[in-house]
Design goal:
The chain has 97 residues and is an alpha+beta fold. It contains two helices and eight strands; from the N terminus they run E-E-H-E-E-H-E-E-E-E. It is a single-pass type I membrane protein.
């Protein structure tokens, strides 16, 4: 079984505007699965050597919130994960909200 050490979810195009949009995930759920999280206006990064299943569970919990939808017509995000300290990197997965 392969373990991941990082997954990044980043905004494509403009950075997230902290005044009206954010990516959120329940920090307690992240810690419960033995992972750490850092977030910024670029997106969020999950770190910690752990199973793909635990990463998948946390990725399902990520929520995008936008309080001023009239200012944004669409938002695109990119996800990629790595193992062995970046030695192996997944293909990018892109999604549009």
């Amino acid at each position: 079984m392969h373990n991941l050490d990082t997954c990044e979810v980043t905004a494509l195009g403009d950075e997230l505007d902290g005044e009206h949009e954010t990516l959120e995930v329940d920090q307690a759920q992240v810690q419960q699965r033995g992972l750490e999280m850092a977030s910024s206006n670029l997106g969020l990064v999950l770190t910690g050597v752990n199973t793909m299943a635990n990463y998948e569970q946390v990725l399902h919990l990520i929520r995008y919130k936008n309080w001023h939808t009239e200012t944004l017509f669409d938002r695109k995000f990119k996800l990629f994960c790595s193992e062995l300290n970046g030695r192996y990197i997944s293909n990018d997965f892109k999604v549009e909200v």
